[in-house]
Amino acid sequence: MGLGMLLMAVSIAMVLLALVDSVPAWIVAVAWVIGGYGMGLTISSGSVLLLKLSRPEDAGSNSASLQVSDALGNITLVGLSGVLFVTFGGGEIAATGTAATHQPAAFGAVYVAMAAVALVGAWVTTRLRPVTA
Prior knowledge:
Order of helices and strands: HHHHH
Shape: elongated
Structural class: mainly alpha
């Protein structure tokens, strides 16, 4: 799972490079392929680990809790991204039509924050240990 989170952080950092005019646009496609691979490693590993560590009678409720946590995490991070985007001038893009002055800072703030979240997630995975009874 840690590798998947690291791949997602690398992917997000690569997309951040697309804000530089001299970086080719195909870098974004490569970045999203890497990020998608990282998500595949992380999500499936998390589900398997949860079921492995759950008692059979708790597997259903634990799986439901995982799904709820996943949804709440998505909602929270999308909200945080929106706040960062507007805080760094992204909300002014539509109003003024001058994307050149605000867009890089707004997108950069979102990408840096989300890469940091992925790195924290990679660190958290180092703490996963089987529970001994």
